[in-house]
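ok trying again, last paste got cut off:
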Amino acid sequence: MSPISPDYPQVLRRARDPLWIAGAVALLFLGLIFWDQSYSLDSQRDSLRPSSSVNPGISQTLAARPKFIQTAHLASAHEMCPLPASAFGVAASALSPVNRLDYAPSRTGAPIVDFFTGGGYYMPRTHCLLTSEGTSDWPWIIALLMLNAAVIVAYLRIFIFWMRSYFDERAEDRNQQLFDLAAIFLFCAICGYAMSMLMFVWPAYRLLAFFLLALNIFSWRFCTNLASFGKIFASKRLERQLRETVESRAVELERQVRNRTSEVNRLAEIARRTANGVVITDRKGRVEWINEGFTRICGYTIEDLRGKKPGDVLQGPHTNPEVIQRIGDAIRQGLPVTEEVVNYSKSGREYYIRIEIDPLRDERGEISGFMAIESDITEQHQHQEELKRHAEEMVRLRNAAESANRAKTDFLANMSHEIRTPMTAILGFTELLAENSDSAGTTSAERVECIETIRRNGDHLLAIINDILDLSKIEAGMMTVEKIPTDLVHLLKDVESLMQFKATRKGINLRLNLVEPLPTIIHTDPVRLKQILVNLLGNAIKFTEHGEVSIKVHTDANPFPGLIVIDVVDTGIGMTSQQMSQLFGAFVQADTSTTRKFGGTGLGLRISKSLAQLLGGNITINSEPGKGSVFQLTISTGLAKAPQEVVTDNKPESATQRLVKEEAAVEIVKQLPLSGLNIALVEDGLDNQRLIAFHLRKAGADVAVFDNGKLALEAMTSDGTIQGSLGNVGLFDLIVTDMQMPEMDGYTFARSLRTKGFTHPIIALTAHAMEWDKKRCLDSGCDYYISKPVDRAALIDTCRNAVAASVNTN
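nice, full thing came through this time. structure:
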C-alpha cells in the first residue's frame, strides 16, 4: 500500500471547497455549451436542404451518432409535447428529429433569446398541455401557475427572513451557513417553480441550467460543512441549558443587585444629605448627578447643569486660570487632584471651594467618569484674609509705632538739649549772682547782663513749653483762632523789626517786599499769624550762613474771598525731596544732625502748618540742596467783599508798646495797687510761695501762706475742721490757689469754699495751659485763671481786677 501523501488533507480540503466545486461544474457546463453550439450549426446546415433531397450519406451520418442523443431528442419530443397526429397532418411516427427541425415554435429571431430555447425548437408548455380536442388545457395551466406562485412567495418570505436575521447580527456574529441555506431556498424557488411558470410561455430550459449551476454551488458549499450545521438541531437543548444558566445567573445577579442597590441607596442618601457638594460627571466632564449640598452651595439644580461642564457655569472673572489648567491636566491624565477655586453661584455670589476630583473606573479599569467633592471654604478664606490684613495692619502699626518711638526718642533728646541748655545758663548765672552778691564783687553792668541772660533763657524755655502746648491742642483738635480786623502791613513790619536783630547779628540781610495792591485790613488772628511768620523767618535765618532772607507779600484774588501769599525766601543750605517729605511731621527735623548744629525742637513747622490751615491757607515748600528754600505761606483775607482801605486803631502790639506796658506795670506796683487787701496764698511749692508772696506784699497786700487746701480750709472754718462752717466769711478778700497740691488739691478746695458760702473771688494758679484745664478750674468755682510761670504784672492786674469786680457786684 502506497504511503499517504502529506499534502492529502490539503487536497481533500480543496476538494470540499465550494469554490473548487463551482469551478469544476462551470467548466463542465461551458464544455456542454461549446459542444451544443457545434451540433446546432450542423443541424442548421441540414435544415437548409429539401427533405426530398436528403443525402443518404448525411442520414447515415446521423444514424451513426450516439444512440443516447437520438433517444434524448425522441424522448424530449414525445414526453414534453406528445402532439396528436393531426397537429401536422401526418402520423406521429413520421416526426423524426430530422424533419422536426423544420418546425420552430419558440424562435424569436434574437440569437441570445433563442439560445436559451435551443434555437426555438422547444415548445412552450401551453402548446403541450392539450385537451382531447387539441386545445390548451387552460384551467389546469392556470391552477399550476397559481400554485407555483404561492410556493415562490413562501420561499421568498423564508429567504427574506433569513437574510434579515443574518444582516441584523454583527459581522463577527453572522452564520455563513444560514446565508448559504437562504441562497439554496432562493435558487430552489427560481429553478423549481419560477422556471416552471416561465416555461409555460417561454421554454428556456438552458436558462434553467444556469440557475441550477448556482444552486449546485450553494448546495455543495452547504454540504461541505454539514457537521457544524448539526448544532442548529440542538438549539432547543442549548436554548434550555442557556435559559437555565441565565435564570440561575439572573437570580444571583438579582441578589447582588439588591445588595448593591441597598448599599448604593445608602451611600447616595449620605451623599445627598452631606453638607459638601458632590458632582458626578461622565468621562468628558459633563454633569450627570449632583447632591443637595452642591445645590445649597451654588444654587444650581440638576436641571440647570445636566449635560454641561461645571466650569463653564461656575467659573468667573476672579477664577485663577492657572488652577483651572492644573485641574484640566490632571483630568486628561486620569489622575486625582485637589485645588482651591473661586466659583460664582447662580445669584452671582463669589465663593471659595476646596475641590477634590477622583476618576471613576469600570470593571475593565477604564475611566467611566469623575466624582468631585466640593467644600465651601469661603468663611475660612475670609478669616485667613482678615488675619492676613490684621497681620499686615499689625506690621504697619508696629512700624509706625517704632517710627513714632524713634521720633519721640529723638524729640526727647532734642527737648533735653533745648531745656538743659537754657537751664544751664539760668542756674549758672543765678549761682554767679549769689556768689557775687556784694557790690564790690561785680559791676552794675555785669549784674544786668547776668539778669538779662537769665531772662532770655527763661523766655526760651517758656517758648518751648508753649510750642508743646500748642501741638497738644492741635493734636486734640482744640486749637482755635480768632478773626479780628488786623493791619496786615503794620504786622509785617513789626515782624521784620523783631527779626532784624537776629539777621543783623548773623551778618545776613532781611528784606520785606510788599507787592501792591495789598489790603490794609484783613480778618485773621494776628497773634497766630505773627507766630507763623516768626517761626518761618527764624528757621530761614538759622539755616542761612551767607546771603539774605527776603519776605515777598502779594495777593491771590482767584479763590474768594482771596488769599494773602507770603513767600519766605532764603539762600541757606536747602533740603532734599526726602527731607521735605518729613518736614511737617511732629517731632521731626530735616536732619537730626541739625539739632546739634542749629538747635530746635522740630515742632515749629508742624505747628505753623496747622495754624496756617486754621487761618484758611497752607504752607508749602520748594527747596534745592545748597541753593536755599522757599516757604510759601497762604492765609485767607477773611473779607466778605473786596478789600478797601480801612484805618483801624486795633493795631498789633509793637516792641515799644510792650516796653511801655511793662514800665506801666512797674509804675502800678510802685503805687501799691493791692494796698489793704487780705490775700490767702495756697501753694505747696516753697519757691513759688516766696516769689508770689513777695510780689503780692510788694503791691501792698497782706498775705497768709498755706501749704495745701486742707490747711487753708481748716484755718477758715469755725471749728478748725474741713467739715465745719466758715467762721469768718470776710477773713480774706481774695484767694490765690494752686490746683495741684497734696492732701487737698485746688479743685476740691474751691468747690468746698463755694459750698460753704464763700463769695469772694478765687484765682487759680496752674502749670497746665490747656483750654480744657481752664474750663475745669472755672467749673470748680474759681473766677480767674493764671498759668505758670507767673508774670508779675499779670498777677497784680488779675488780683486787682478780681477784687474790683467783686466790689462792683456786691
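cool. The radius of gyration is 68 Å. The longest helix spans residues 378-435.
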